[in-house]
């Protein structure tokens, strides 16, 4: 159930179903019934007056069906059409014909003395920005403050990207069919949808074998079989050794947050490394986490020669500049899995895009001329030249510094970045996207708004590192980490600070452990 289908793929699912013998009219009848069922839940009793706003395509067709079914059970339903009834085609024209009462023009006046609005203006067939009369209507609906139930997607939301084309309806609930679309989860679409219900309208699961979707909504089912649970007789080193590289003395908090994330995610051993002043400070703050004074690229290379140290995080609090560049390149030469976050990413920013970076890069060049300038291509070549996986965890700003302005939806941008860099990308945000170089992608949807708090990204990077230390494959580790992070924030509730996240993880992990299929314990 976690597959996400673009509007084009949904259309294909529809065609395959019809080719299998199910008439399109039946699909529309079931779609309209699903809409009517949810609409009934949003009313305040039989006297509720409902405005159904229908558009010129099959989204409007679903609206006509819902209107008829709601009227049949006693609701006071009015139907308004954008455009001409004579221009309706196919199944939508047939469903309009079955509506027994007058069809009025859809204008802002339609909203007067209504209680609920059903938005059946545009769905999967939105092909351009909404303008003119249609835009005026959408704006009037939003200004009315009436509760809105959207059919398939709120009109104006692009089902593929979640972007607003022109203007868009703000719905309280949305009913979609067979599978969600990326636009239900990507911002701002996700906000405009309200609560999303997915209805079964008789499209068989077998169409997925043809469509082979490569985009999913994050859920444990996707990665739980790759999760490594503690086993009887296991040794701590069986669960990996995560190494967290600290920044200088006044920036050690980020490494500590990452380290606790890694340890709580189940890494057997976690060591924080840094220069002697930084580690002296850290040592007064941690107990089950080890601390070693290891500083500079050469020392890091030597430290990582011990292959039991199998996952490394660098970036949180690292500082931007040539030292971090050298550290990252040394770490990438090791056999460990690597997580690059924050300053480890910005240190490779394209100098052309970033004045501060340009200056730092010039200095670096002066001292390290043989290694070439610190730029994204240097980083990507180092990633592609190694065996063990790399996960990068940029927010939008860091992403832009490394990859520039890429075209397409957030999913497409993350996919391109993963392919270009050879790393698994966690493109963070309310709608975090995880993408692998082979094209697989996941949209995360469980992060509460209060997760946007200082240091929460450091904990996330630490959780990824902890899972990589346990030898979870990188794409699955990244997806699991993002999900656990969101779940932990929800479990803690409002008032959360980053320090709280690692300590809520056990509760989340215990629930997963209790629910996982038998025989895997
Ligand atoms: N697939 C399924 O499984 C099932 C799908 N079902 C339903 O069908 C819906 C998809 O129907 P659809 O393809 O007819 O597209 P829809 O969204 O009604 O819009 C197309 C019309 O709008 C017009 N138009 C577009 N943009 C415009 C704009 N900005 N401003 C003005 N006009 C604009 C466009 O005009 P054109 O581009 O052709 O000039 C065309 O006339 C889907 O969302 C779901 O609700 C269910 O019934 C059952 C199973
Ligand atoms: K709609």
UniProtKB/TrEMBL annotation:
<dbReference type="InterPro" id="IPR030677">
    <property type="entry name" value="Nnr"/>
</dbReference>
<dbReference type="GO" id="GO:0052855">
    <property type="term" value="F:ADP-dependent NAD(P)H-hydrate dehydratase activity"/>
</dbReference>
<feature type="domain" description="YjeF N-terminal">
    <location>
        <begin position="10"/>
        <end position="209"/>
    </location>
</feature>
<dbReference type="InterPro" id="IPR029056">
    <property type="entry name" value="Ribokinase-like"/>
</dbReference>
<keyword id="KW-0456">Lyase</keyword>
<comment type="function">
    <text>Catalyzes the epimerization of the S- and R-forms of NAD(P)HX, a damaged form of NAD(P)H that is a result of enzymatic or heat-dependent hydration. This is a prerequisite for the S-specific NAD(P)H-hydrate dehydratase to allow the repair of both epimers of NAD(P)HX.</text>
</comment>
<keyword id="KW-0547">Nucleotide-binding</keyword>
<dbReference type="InterPro" id="IPR036652">
    <property type="entry name" value="YjeF_N_dom_sf"/>
</dbReference>
<comment type="function">
    <text>Catalyzes the dehydration of the S-form of NAD(P)HX at the expense of ADP, which is converted to AMP. Together with NAD(P)HX epimerase, which catalyzes the epimerization of the S- and R-forms, the enzyme allows the repair of both epimers of NAD(P)HX, a damaged form of NAD(P)H that is a result of enzymatic or heat-dependent hydration.</text>
</comment>
<feature type="binding site">
    <location>
        <position position="457"/>
    </location>
    <ligand>
        <name>AMP</name>
    </ligand>
</feature>
<dbReference type="GO" id="GO:0005524">
    <property type="term" value="F:ATP binding"/>
</dbReference>
<dbReference type="InterPro" id="IPR017953">
    <property type="entry name" value="Carbohydrate_kinase_pred_CS"/>
</dbReference>
<keyword id="KW-0520">NAD</keyword>
<dbReference type="Pfam" id="PF01256">
    <property type="entry name" value="Carb_kinase"/>
</dbReference>
<keyword id="KW-0521">NADP</keyword>
<protein>
    <recommendedName>
        <fullName>Bifunctional NAD(P)H-hydrate repair enzyme</fullName>
        <ecNumber>4.2.1.136</ecNumber>
        <ecNumber>5.1.99.6</ecNumber>
    </recommendedName>
</protein>
<dbReference type="GO" id="GO:0046872">
    <property type="term" value="F:metal ion binding"/>
</dbReference>
<feature type="domain" description="YjeF C-terminal">
    <location>
        <begin position="219"/>
        <end position="512"/>
    </location>
</feature>
<dbReference type="GO" id="GO:0046496">
    <property type="term" value="P:nicotinamide nucleotide metabolic process"/>
</dbReference>
<keyword id="KW-0067">ATP-binding</keyword>
<dbReference type="InterPro" id="IPR004443">
    <property type="entry name" value="YjeF_N_dom"/>
</dbReference>
<feature type="region of interest" description="Disordered">
    <location>
        <begin position="1"/>
        <end position="21"/>
    </location>
</feature>
<feature type="binding site">
    <location>
        <position position="458"/>
    </location>
    <ligand>
        <name>(6S)-NADPHX</name>
    </ligand>
</feature>
<comment type="similarity">
    <text>In the C-terminal section; belongs to the NnrD/CARKD family.</text>
</comment>
<feature type="binding site">
    <location>
        <begin position="428"/>
        <end position="432"/>
    </location>
    <ligand>
        <name>AMP</name>
    </ligand>
</feature>
<feature type="binding site">
    <location>
        <position position="59"/>
    </location>
    <ligand>
        <name>K(+)</name>
    </ligand>
</feature>
<feature type="binding site">
    <location>
        <position position="395"/>
    </location>
    <ligand>
        <name>(6S)-NADPHX</name>
    </ligand>
</feature>
<feature type="binding site">
    <location>
        <position position="119"/>
    </location>
    <ligand>
        <name>K(+)</name>
    </ligand>
</feature>
<feature type="binding site">
    <location>
        <begin position="58"/>
        <end position="62"/>
    </location>
    <ligand>
        <name>(6S)-NADPHX</name>
    </ligand>
</feature>
<feature type="binding site">
    <location>
        <position position="152"/>
    </location>
    <ligand>
        <name>(6S)-NADPHX</name>
    </ligand>
</feature>
<keyword id="KW-0630">Potassium</keyword>
<feature type="binding site">
    <location>
        <position position="155"/>
    </location>
    <ligand>
        <name>K(+)</name>
    </ligand>
</feature>
<keyword id="KW-0511">Multifunctional enzyme</keyword>
<comment type="similarity">
    <text>Belongs to the NnrD/CARKD family.</text>
</comment>
<keyword id="KW-0413">Isomerase</keyword>
<feature type="binding site">
    <location>
        <position position="317"/>
    </location>
    <ligand>
        <name>(6S)-NADPHX</name>
    </ligand>
</feature>
<comment type="subunit">
    <text>Homotetramer.</text>
</comment>
<keyword id="KW-0479">Metal-binding</keyword>
<feature type="binding site">
    <location>
        <begin position="123"/>
        <end position="129"/>
    </location>
    <ligand>
        <name>(6S)-NADPHX</name>
    </ligand>
</feature>
<feature type="binding site">
    <location>
        <position position="254"/>
    </location>
    <ligand>
        <name>(6S)-NADPHX</name>
    </ligand>
</feature>
<dbReference type="GO" id="GO:0052856">
    <property type="term" value="F:NAD(P)HX epimerase activity"/>
</dbReference>
<dbReference type="InterPro" id="IPR000631">
    <property type="entry name" value="CARKD"/>
</dbReference>
């Amino acid at each position: 159930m976690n597959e996400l289908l673009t509007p084009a793929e949904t259309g294909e699912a529809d065609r395959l179903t019809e080719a299998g013998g199910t008439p399109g009219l039946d699909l529309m009848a079931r779609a309209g019934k699903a809409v009517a069922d949810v609409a009934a839940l949003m009313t305040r009793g039989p006297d509720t007056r409902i405005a159904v706003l229908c558009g010129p395509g099959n989204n409007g067709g679903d609206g006509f069906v819902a209107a008829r079914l709601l009227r049949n059970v006693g609701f006071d339903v009015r139907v308004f059409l954008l455009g001409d009834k004579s221009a309706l085609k196919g199944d939508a024209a047939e469903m309009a014909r079955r509506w027994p009462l007058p069809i009025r023009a859809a204008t802002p006046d339609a909203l007067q003395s209504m209680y609920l609005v059903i938005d059946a203006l545009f769905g999967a067939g939105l092909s351009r920005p909404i303008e003119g009369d249609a835009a005026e209507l959408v704006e009037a609906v939003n200004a009315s403050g009436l509760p809105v139930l959207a059919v398939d997607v709120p009109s104006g939301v692009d089902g593929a990207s979640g972007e607003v084309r022109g203007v868009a309806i703000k719905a309280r609930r949305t009913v979609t069919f067979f599978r969600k679309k990326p636009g239900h989860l990507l911002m701002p679409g996700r906000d405009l949808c309200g609560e999303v219900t997915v209805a079964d309208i008789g499209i068989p699961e077998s169409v997925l074998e043809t469509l082979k979707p490569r985009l999913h909504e994050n859920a444990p089912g996707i990665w739980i079989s790759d999760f490594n649970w503690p086993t009887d007789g296991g040794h701590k080193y069986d669960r990996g050794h995560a190494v967290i590289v600290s920044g200088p003395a006044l920036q050690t908090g980020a490494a500590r947050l990452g380290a606790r994330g890694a340890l709580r995610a189940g890494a057997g051993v976690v060591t924080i490394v840094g220069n002697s002043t930084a580690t002296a400070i850290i040592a007064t703050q941690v107990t089950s986490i080890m601390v070693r004074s290891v500083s500079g690229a050469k020392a890091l290379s030597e430290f990582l020669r011990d292959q039991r140290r199998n996952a490394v995080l660098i970036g949180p609090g690292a500082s931007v500049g040539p030292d971090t560049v050298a550290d990252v390149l040394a770490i990438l030469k090791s056999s460990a899995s690597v997580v690059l976050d924050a300053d480890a990413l910005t240190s490779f920013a394209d100098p052309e895009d970033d004045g501060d970076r340009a200056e730092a890069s010039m200095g670096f060049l002066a001292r390290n001329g043989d290694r070439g300038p610190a730029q994204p291509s240097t980083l990507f070549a180092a990633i592609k030249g190694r065996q063990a996986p790399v996960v990068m965890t940029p927010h939008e700003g860091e992403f832009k510094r490394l990859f520039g302005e890429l075209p397409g939806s957030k999913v497409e941008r993350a996919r391109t970045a993963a392919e270009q860099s050879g790393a698994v990308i966690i493109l963070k945000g309310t709608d975090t996207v995880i993408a692998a170089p082979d094209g697989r992608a996941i949209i995360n949807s469980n992060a509460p708004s209060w997760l946007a708090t200082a240091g929460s990204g450091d904990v996330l990077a630490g959780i990824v590192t902890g899972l990589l230390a346990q030898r979870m494959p990188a794409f699955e580790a990244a997806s699991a980490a993002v999900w656990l992070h969101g779940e932990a924030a929800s479990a803690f509730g409002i008032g959360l600070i980053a320090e709280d996240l690692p300590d809520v993880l056990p509760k989340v992990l215990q629930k997963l452990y209790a629910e996982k299929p038998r025989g895997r314990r």
